Structures
1.
Amino acid sequence: MQCNEVQSVHFGTHMQAKEVDDWWVSILPTLEQGGGVVNWVVFRREFLDIYFSEYVREKKEIEFLELKQGNMSVTEYAGKFVELAKFYPHYTPETAEFS
């Protein structure tokens, strides 16, 4: 298709959303079989298994564990921390140590 970069972003995200929606509609009956509860945890697990490989998740986990402020501002560092923390399953705000 011939379109500019702005249109490409809109088209690409729409297509991805449609693909994810189609995937979800197709897998939902399987997840609900036997009275299974389909909540955010279930969706997230299934979504990550399909669209975010274990290898990439492991790389993000390592990036989180090795995160240093370096030249980042406190705000940038905090944003990066929050972004990467979701990939480290052992981190919870309750168990975090601040020193």
Note: Residues 48 and 54 are 8 Å apart (CA to CA).
2.
Amino acid sequence: MKRPPMLTMLSGEQKLAEIKRLYYQTTRPTIAQDLAKAIDLVKSMTSEEERERAAVYMDGLSQMRSDWARQHGWKGKKSKNTGRR
């Protein structure tokens, strides 16, 4: 009988290493999914110290997304509330 693959828990260092990898390897087509994965990793970190170490990479990923969106005229989600009554 074939056993299902084992899920491994990542250490704080492994999570940070994955966020760094995402930061250095992200591309315009993959930025949305890479940023989402990085956010999930940060949320799973157990200490404030771990999150602080990841902050610079998270900021960089966010900045890349914003820059690429601005260069290509991407629009954010439109608000349903226009403020008119």
Note: The mean pLDDT is 84.
3.
Amino acid sequence: MANQFGRMPGGMGNIMKAMQNAVQQAGTLETELAGLKLEAESGGGMVKVVVTGKGDLIEIKISKDVVDPNDVQMLEDLVSMAVRDALAKASALREEKMKDMLPSGMGGIPGLF
């Protein structure tokens, strides 16, 4: 039997169930991303940065060879480059994982994430 909108009863229940499932998947994804570690480096490996898949900075390693008290700007630049690269990797990973959660065909919507 159709309701006043021409749809069968229970359609709203299916939508709510799908929304609950999506929320649960998002929570699982957040946990998964928090456990992933992504590394980036600059200066030929002189500066290494580790972030989680969520984009949380968890580690910076700096080689003694790159520490020059007379050129602090170079060290700052190397750290900045490594952090930006690591965060870009985390962002790309999050976006890819979120697209995988979407129903078929919705992952290609520009600006969705």
Note: Strands lie at 37-42, 47-52, 57-62.
